[in-house]
Amino acid sequence: MARPEGIEKIVWGIALPGFAQFLNQKYFKGFVFIVLEFLINVNARLNQAIIFSFHGDIKKSIEVVDYGWLMFYPCLYLFAIYDGYKDAGGGNSYSFFPFVISAYFGTIGVIYSPYFLGPIWLPILCLVLGAGIGIGFGILIRRFTDT
Fold first, then answer.
1. What's the pTM value of the predicted model, to 2 decimals?
2. How far is Cα 11 from Cα 17, in angstroms, rounded to an integer?
3. What is the DSSP letter of 66?
């Protein structure tokens, strides 16, 4: 079971990559994650794509986003969340699985998003699917390795 401090860091990391690192007093790492998040966000025009997606204009969100920059976002986002969680003392030796698999699936979601649901909704759905698969994979590995 995850410790409450770890869950708190996950939630802050979801809000903005780097916040969990500041809460863990890892100021340099937090600053780097925040700068990278803003760099990727601005260059990918992610906020504009989010606005169009939430208004139901998926075609416009596909047109406005820069996929070259957006490809970096799932990995940065999930790594920052995992790093904050790990630094808070959360998890065990297999706790990285949900984060890694979720980042992978989120990136796959970005790749296929121009064809289905756009650059916001498909990657989010893929992140959730990846997290579920990663949790299941971690449970299976623990079951077979812990005796």
1. 0.84
2. 10
3. -
